[in-house]
Write a structure and sequence with these properties.
The complex is a heterodimer of chains A (about 200) and B (about 210).
Chain A (H helix, E strand, L loop, with lengths): L4 H11 L3 H19 L6 H18 L9 H19 L14 H12 L3 H19 L3 H11 L5 H8 L3 H33 L1
Helix pairs in contact in A: 1-2, 2-3, 2-4, 3-4, 6-9, 7-9, 8-9
Chain B lengths: L2 H11 L5 H11 L3 H17 L11 H10 L15 H4 L2 H28 L2 H8 L33 H14 L2 H13 L11 H8 L2
Helix pairs in contact in B: 1-3
The chains are: A mainly alpha (about 200), B mainly alpha (about 210).
């Protein structure tokens, strides 16, 4: 399978004037981009602002994107430049932030300091994380292995098939069934969370 | 929701769907909000598995980007500053094609109209305007003689220049031209006249013309 085909098909649609296709690209990469920008700024809300700016810059520059590189690689460069420019414009030095140096607990505390402004959002994020992890734990072994090799290790279906000694079609089916099982429980959280947010608002 | 569609969506998310299916699904994904929401949840699942801590999984980032992009002009639109009414665009290529076809048709008709005159010898053209050939008929006075048959020339058209004018021109030209040039003109006039087709020629007529 040629790399980046799905992104490229969405990109081509955006280039022809389909803004809905850009939504799909944002939904797919928003978490990765925010995590990337958080190497430069600790504050999650600030990282989201920079990520938003990067997405808008990417949209405006998309007519010049020819597909020579993967879309995410191109987006990655835009986000890095946007983050650096944001720091320069605020007359600050980039924070040398190494994720590996920090434990999960301290990292969570940094996030919580900002998220304390939106407790509902913090609770919902924790609930999402707990639900997904619980759903993954409840998966049959073959489905859990397939989804983890894909999402955590980033292996292709062919590589997973080789690792699990099964056909590529089986890998595709296992990953799909794993996602469906997790999504059934995740959907309830999103719908319930949105309901609670509306009640608070 | 269709299980096959969801399976395709999962494979597309992993960049493992064949390109042709990707094109079709990308089209549907960009318009189907339920499908897009599922796509977004697949991204959340990936973020949790990768333990992307500090990232708010319910952040309204996508909605904010969507709102900002909504205010932007859609890509692929014509350049602003050259406004053209949308209703006029569709038939402009047709008009161009029709004009080209019309010019081509007129050219063909004109060439067909001019063709025989330019390819036939001058004498043949002259004779086409004058059905009888009295100068060649030895039995003068019998112009209405049915034995003299002029070969049919269906391809010939009436001359653009009347035969009398042409004759007058030749005579007038011979008055001022040098003898050599006059001979050349007359000889070319005579030699260019085609002989009638043998099968169309009456033997009697042939005999009458060859008689001394």
């Amino acid at each position: 399978m040629s790399a980046d085909v799905s992104d490229l098909s969405l990109v081509r649609r955006v280039q022809r004037g389909d803004k809905g296709a850009f939504d799909a690209l944002v939904l797919k990469y928003q978490h990765k981009l925010v995590k990337l920008v958080m190497r430069y700024v600790r504050n999650p809300a600030e990282a989201e602002d920079i990520a938003q700016e990067a997405f808008i810059k990417a949209y405006r520059a998309l007519p010049q994107f020819r597909g020579d590189s993967a879309f995410y690689t191109w987006l990655y460069r835009i986000a890095i430049n946007t983050a650096k420019n944001a720091l320069v414009s605020r007359d600050r030095s980039p924070i040398e932030y190494d994720l590996d140096r920090h434990s999960d607990e301290s990292y969570d505390m940094q996030g919580r300091m900002k998220d304390s402004e939106t407790p509902e959002g913090l609770v919902l994020t924790d609930e999402i994380r707990t639900t997904v992890n619980a759903a993954i734990d409840a998966l049959p072994e073959d489905l859990r292995t397939a989804i983890v090799l894909r999402e955590l290790e980033g292996l292709s279906y062919e590589e997973i098939a080789a690792a699990m000694d099964c056909p590529v079609g089986t890998v595709r089916s296992r990953i799909f069934r794993a996602r469906e099982a997790i999504d059934r429980r995740l959907r309830e959280v999103f719908e319930g969370g949105l309901g609670r947010a509306e009640e608070l608002g | 929701m269709n299980e096959e569609l969801d399976s395709q969506l999962s494979a597309m998310f992993d960049d493992e769907l064949p390109p042709a299916e990707c094109e079709l699904l990308a089209r549907r994904l960009s318009r189907d909000e339920a499908l897009k929401a599922r796509w977004g949840r697949y991204a959340v699942i990936g973020a949790v598995v990768r333990a992307e801590r500090g990232v708010r999984l319910n952040a309204p980032l996508a909605g904010r980007v969507n709102a900002a992009i909504s205010a932007e002009p859609a890509l692929g639109n014509p350049v602003v500053g050259q406004p053209r009414p949308a209703g006029l665009r569709w038939w402009q290529p047709l008009v161009g094609g029709a004009l080209a076809a019309g010019v081509a048709a007129a050219s063909v008709l004109w060439l067909r109209a001019q063709g025989p005159l330019t390819t036939l010898p001058l004498a043949a053209q002259h004779r086409a305007g004058a059905p009888a050939a009295p100068v060649l008929d030895a039995s003068a006075g019998s112009l209405a003689n049915a034995s003299y048959v002029t070969p049919a020339t269906p391809a010939l058209r009436p001359m653009l220049v009347p035969s009398t004018q042409l004759a007058n021109y030749v005579v007038a030209h011979s008055m001022v031209s040098s003898p050599v040039a006059r001979r050349n003109l007359l000889s070319s006039f005579i030699t260019s006249e085609p002989s009638p087709a043998p099968e169309a020629q009456d033997p009697k007529d042939h005999a009458s013309r060859t008689a001394p």
